[in-house]
Write a structure and sequence with these properties.
Layout lengths: L12 E6 L4 H17 L4 E6 L8 H13 L3 H9 L2 H7 L1 H10 L4 H10 L3 H13 L7 E4 L2 E4 L7 H21 L1
Parallel strand pairs: 1-2
Antiparallel strand pairs: 1-3, 3-4
Helix pairs in contact: 2-3, 2-5, 2-6, 5-6
Amino acid sequence: MSDPSPARAAAPVLDVWCELQCPDCRDALDDVRALRARYGDRLELRLRHFPLEKHKHSFAAAQAAEEALEQGRGWEYVEAVLGRVEELDREGEPFLVEVARELGLDAEEFDTALIDGRHILIVDADQAEGKAIGVSGTPTYVIDGERLDGGKSQDGLRARVEEIADRLLAGQDRAGQE
């Protein structure tokens, strides 16, 4: 017997262009948490890297976040690092490995990943794509082709993301009923 329900449409995607040494990204965490809580798996939040030259540990932090994603704890790691931006400023790469250890991740693998650069291509590709679509600072959100710059102000951004996500999800619901 075949399943009569239509195939579930892919969740709308919210790209969150972030830099782990950025105080504005730390301030945006409440919005990201609220969006994850509200939409769950109905909205795919994708971490995208946009390390800024003014933050000397941001490129390594982006690589470490990729290692955390690979080990299955990406957002948890991102939140832990962003919550302690000042420590990252002071301590650099040893801090990134220490956060991994605190979260019960394979810290040795983090250390190795930062040395062998296995995640550099992902970070470089994200940064190049960000530049190509006009990302100039962090945090920046992109949903349904609309870029929302949170680096200048977070005011109203979550409401705008929710408005677009609700519209996209309503469109999926209508399409699924036809």
